[in-house]
Amino acid sequence: MTSTGVYISVPFCRAKCSYCNFASDAFGPARMDAYVDRLCQEIAAAPERAERMGVANKWHVDSIYFGGGTPSLLSEAHFKRIFDAFKRTFSLQNDAEFTLECAPGQLSDETLAELQRHGLNRVSLGVQSFIDQESRAVGRFHTREVCLEEIARLRSAGIEEINVDLIAGLPHQTLESFQESLQVAVGTGVPHTSVYMLEVDEESRLGKELIAGGVRYHAHHVPDDGLVADMYLQACEFFGQNGIPQYEISNLARPGHESRHNLKYWKRLPYLGLGLDAHSMLGNWRFQNTDNLTEYLEGKPGPEPEEVSADEAFEERIFLGLRLNEGIELAVLGGHTSHPVIKALEELSKDGLIRIADGRAALTAKGRLLSNDVFTELLTATA
Q: Three-state SS for 192?
């Protein structure tokens, strides 16, 4: 048996945020019913799919993560069907971490109760900002009051493991308004926060408007890159001062409250992705589902699975491990000390982007801020 994380994609939203280009959108109940049908079929077929790749297909599941989209829009009946299928296929550990992504104000009491019957113990709230004007500007429906009420309701239901997502770089955001969101987040006492620098995809509505130099979607009020970087550093420093240290580029947590599921990605531990555009890594294989909803509902496969070579696995360990503040142990490089990426790490350390000390290599604070540039440099070295 192998301890495995399971990610379940639910691509439904009440409305699509202006900056979003994920494989998600607003769909009616009929599409949700059809999606759950297809998801249950995929769950049932998972062992056979793994067997075809020569991967162990008997799993102890130690983490479940419902992501989206807004998975909390599914009804309690939908979740009951999903878990009926899930428990026929997987062995769920008693102490498994079970996370649900949720938009504040969009989780019914009935759905919450049903999920808790199946072990829900962690909720990630897509707050993005505690400033109402900033939330409205990108199409969010909630207010600060709704967010605070949701946190209180979850705690009353016995859920203490709560994450709050925040975004640095929203339209109308300033250093002062962002500081207010940080203070509210700390004041809630939640043990985990995620802070993302707004990266506007050119295919999103906001991205297209920014490229066109227009004013729709409040594009003319998006902070410049320098200000966004300042906000990110502001968040890392403020949360650290308040007992919520950074442990990954975008994630901060009180000690012992790190996301066990997400750590699987960064430490190259096995995980299975189910649903639209879901990605998996089992054994030496990586594979993903199609990101086209119609194709997914018709049962069409995604791209062909790819077997990861020893060199590719080595490079992944470096790229993913560097996302963590603890970095990577130089000892794991083993016989790869002549690999071009090692020389690239040494050069990056001269630029103050990588710290090499005490047998480890890790991004510096500046390196985390410029992580895309660091990874581009490392990719160039491995090309």
A: strand
* Mean predicted confidence (pLDDT) in 81-99: 94
Residue 279: closest CA among 3, 70, 8, 1? 8
Q: If you search the block for the tokens 């400033």, which residue do you land on?
A: 131
Q: What is the DSSP letter of 23?
A: S
Complete edge-to-edge strand list for the sheet that includes strand 271-274: 246-248, 251-253, 192-197, 161-168, 122-128, 91-102, 59-68, 2-10, 271-274, 279-282, 285-288, 306-307
Rounded to two decimals, the pTM is 0.91
Bond prior to 299 in cis (omega within 30° of 0) = no
pLDDT digit string, tens, across residues 20-52: 555 555 666 788 999 999 999 999 999 988 888
83, 118 contact by CB (below 8 A): yes
Give the model confidence (pLDDT) of 286-322 as tens digits: 999 999 999 999 999 889 999 999 888 888 888 899 9
Residue 215 token pair: 């004013």
The segment(s) of the chain belonging to CATH 1.10.10.920 are: 309-383
- Collapsing DSSP states into helix, strand and coil, what is residue 193? strand
Question: 309-383: what fold?
Answer: Arc Repressor Mutant, subunit A (1.10.10)
**Residues in the chain, how many?**
383
- Interval 261-283: pLDDT, tens: 999 999 999 999 999 999 999 98
- The superfamily CATH assigns to domain 2-266 is tm_1862 like domain (3.80.30.20)
Neighbour count for residue 156 (Cβ, 10 Å): 8
CATH 3.80.30.20 domain residues, the chain: 2-266
First-to-last alpha carbon distance for the chain, in angstroms, is 36
